[in-house]
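Researcher: I'm preparing a figure for a lab meeting and need a structural model of a single chain. I don't have an experimental structure, so a prediction will have to do for now. The sequence is pasted below. Please return the structure as tokens so I can convert it later.
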Amino acid sequence: MFGWYLLSALVAYALCSLAMARQAYGIQRTVLITRSGRSHEGRTYAEQFRSYDQEHALALALLIGLVWPLSLPVYLASHFCKWAITANPPLTRREHRERARAAAERTRELEQALGLAQTGGLALPSSRTTP
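Model: Understood. Here is the structure written out token by token.
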């Protein structure tokens, strides 16, 4: 009976290791492709990644996958901290001015589209012609 528990635990550990390694590989691949400089020899960035950086990303992903009991909580904690810190920061004066300017511009556009800008106010229903 103990053997089945041990086997189940090893299978679960292996599956979690593979899932964590896949996640880490995807993150590393994305980072390395987006941060790469110029494409050499007319190759795409993905081909360049496969030629030069894939082994490094794979090794790091396997290492992270093997120590997933440590890396998973750190990964989740970092995402929670990022969300908690950057969720809703107070606006700066410049952002307030930009939003006010954008709102005023949008109001002008809507007034022009509705024909309110020429009359200087709201058009009365009796002044409209009905088709």
